Amino acid sequence: MLLLRVQQKKGRALMSNSKSNNNSYSVEDLIVDESFIRWVKFGQSEDNDRWTLLLNQRPDLRAVVAEARLWVEEITFETATPTLLDETAFYLRLKNTIADTGTEQKVRRLIPQWLRVAASLTAVLVTVLLTYWAFTYYSFKRIATGDGEIARIFLPDSSEVILNANTKVKYERVWDKDEPREIWIEGEGYFNVKHLNKDQNHIKNSEQFIVHTADVNIQVLGTSFNVNTRRNKTKVVLTTGKIQLSLANNNNAPIVMKPGEAVTYSQKQKEIIKNKSSLNPSISSAWKEHKLIFVQSDIQQIAEQIEDNLGYKVKVNAPSLKGRTISGSVATANVDVLAKVLGDLLNVDVKVNPQNKIILIQEKN
Amino acid sequence: MSVVSYLKKSGINEAELWLTFKEGDVKAYEQIYTIYYRQLYNYAHKYTSDKELVNDLIHDLFVKIWNNRQSLSNPPSVKNYLFKSFRGHLFNHIRNTRDHASGTAEQLEMLNPFTLEVKASPEADVIAFEKKNQVNRLISNAINQLTDRQREAIYLKYYEGFSYPEIAEIMGLSVKATYKLIARAIAALREHAGNQPIVLFLAMFRKFIV
Fold first, then answer.
1. pLDDT digits 0-9 by tens, B86-100
2. A157: nearest CB among B52, B99, B121
3. pTM of structure
4. List of residues 6+ apart from B101 with CB closer than 8 A
5. Which of A303, B81, B96, B118 is deepest in the core (most CB within 10 A)?
6. Would you list the DSSP string of A68-83?
7. Residue A218, SS3 per DSSP
8. Closest-CA residue to A72 (of A44, A35, A19, A45)
């Protein structure tokens, strides 16, 4: 194994000439060879011919090639590709913008005057209505994430919001200097609100920052906190600063939160539970680093976390897991890795079905 | 293959394409933005996940290029020119829309993270899986220890295949500073990856266009 071999060779230079004669290939030689890399990644005919020929002539190289393949297959950067829809929309939009700056077309006078007037008036009316509708709709900026997607956005005041999977936010595109800063969220997000307040005794409207969820309103001046509105509950965990939390449909006195505290509001029970969390608040925002942290979680809680953060439905059919709890952290960047780690931790079989987006947890045979 | 050799293979001469576009040929212009849209999208996405913003910025860049086509120079590398223009455009936008009116260029840069993630590919074989998992964690960990500008430089060099002078132009640095930046990045990667031949890994990140 390359890893093991390199660790044993601590004293020697790592890039010593391993290609002393043309016929000897080491893993290091292969992984920097453009043709080899291309062959592993794309298997094109010219490269394929060369390397399969070599392997046939030199069966002793099979282990080296297999290991080099592993390295090359593993090493790529995550790429962001636009969807076909986005791409087509982009081209059309650009084409239109360019066409507007092009030359004018000659007008042909075949249509009677009155018809043209009627047509223009209708067009004007429709445009006005559409503009009005678009204005009210688009005066809000809306952002939504999909399954397993984490996005980072900046608000007009440069506050930062990190959105977890399957989350929607909306906020006005232009923020009035005399109005509080407001944003609506559904899903889960971590907020880093920019502190604008200069005088504690005199708080201006624009220095307030309000997060609206379906059930609660969170009012802050400049803080970092996690908001989770999944499963008919709103849970707010405060990392730094101070929060004033009030219920959306209630005029009772608001709750003031301090760092480390967590407040959960349940829609069903219509009540607020406040905990002075002994847990590190970063546990509830570990999702930002593509991790899930479990603290004595049972299988039900684990399943819910996976569903919320990865967008996979979890089906459990393992009686041995009843009453068991686990504590630990799993990486969520890759669902297959997560499945394997979970299976090992719980000593069960965890199967992933990528087409239907289902994870099946069963007893091991 | 680099962009240039890909174009050659497809029978497209980029220098000619650029000249034709400057003369106002819409088809040439369309070819140019079709070739570079995805690359710029990927690059922009490392700065912000806001897809709407990314599309707006790329759109505005290409509109600007069309409108000013007659006064443009003939860059030796269109890709380099586009990346440099785009980056400048992105930072202008940030300066205009955020509350950083008083920030210097450096301060502005420091406040803008560049995200680089290593892709994890699944493996059915359990043993191969373990090895891959190890490698991935090692490299991701090392990359995360870099500063944003180091990450961006590594990305431009090893993924996009730009030369040092080209990277210097894109990032607005002197060539000497660019060498230093990348040398520091590699040293930092070595440090965080233990004895692993991290420089070899970097060679594998090279993007290929099929």
1. 999 988 887 777 654
2. B99
3. 0.51
4. B95
5. B118
6. HHHHHHH--B------
7. strand
8. A35
